[in-house]
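Table S2 (continued). Query chain:
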Amino acid sequence: MKMSPSFRRALLVVLLALVVAGVLGWSFWPRPVPVETAEVTRGPVAVEVSDNGRTRVREIYRLSAPVAGRLLRVEVHAGDQVVGGRTRVAELQPVPPSFLDVRTRAQAAAAVAAAQAAQTLAAAEVRRQRAQLEFAAADYHRSLALARIDGISRADLDRAKLGHETARAALASAEAALKVKQSDLAAARALLIDPGNAGNPAGRDSIPLVAPVSGCVLRVASESETALPAGAPILEVGDPRKIEVVAELVSEDAVKVHPGDRATITDWGGPKPLAARVRRVEPSGFTKISALGIEEQRVNVLLDPAGAAASWAPLADGFRVIVHIVVWSHPDAIRVPVAALFRHGRGWAAFVLRDRRAVRTVVSVGRANDEVAEVLAGLRPGDRVIVHPSDRVRDGVRVSTEAAARE
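Corresponding output:
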């Protein structure tokens, strides 16, 4: 039977409508959401606090200048071995006098002239008192001769003796005053000594400085000859084998750390982490400005090497390391990746894969680190959970792990 043109047009429109409807239906048909999954496992879980640290020699002895002076060139260098009380490490000479300006030199010259005049006056007083003593001595001897023949009274003899003793004491006082004036003149002349006329040959009047303890020279503050004030550091000595690690933890992390906690040292330059153990958490904190300009309260935590001494041998004083301190651990806990957890109300939840659908499950979580969290309830070992769920993943939605793997 032959179709009429109008019938064929109607049939074509119907077929076209069916094709469009099929395409639209296929386009809007819900498809499985591609997801990535991970397995809930059982194993050890450890919680750590980590921060930068540095190594340092446990006992450092700093040699300082005992008095102000000129330090001669230090002949020892960092790394040299020294013997305590025997190895001479430096030599200190007295500081030469400074140059005088015109006013100070004129004042010093006037002081010398005054001291010379005072010395001349004191010398004249000594000569006068010596003459008085000679006269008093002669008078006393005459009085003694007359007293033997009863030529004078006892009172006159006592007065002659008193005059003689008084003259002797006056001469001693005048001689002492002369010595004082002579010392004043020497002190005044010393103010006029120029640096070039001080005269201090090498080795004369110098102070030898020896190593305080046996060990290794860690650092030398100044190797060249220089003038130092009293108390200025010269060098440091210590034993590099007796080393410790100092970690400056923020106070929120420091309260979780206790002496005896085990730790590992990483990023120190070697192939394997080093074992360490916390020795002390200092009881006082300090303020430190972070790289972002934020004030932080920091606490020093001291750690001792716990592994073989040979593994710590490459480290020395002042090396940078990363410290990981274990503050909690469980040897056999149910673990879930933290990437699978999300907030649900006031607690936590995860999407569990069941029959190719995402099932939202409330999870009770204990301790957690950067990778896994301890599961207290809600999940069992072997469950598959969706990690990094997107906003398309909802409770009951169909999911596909194969599509995620292809992508």
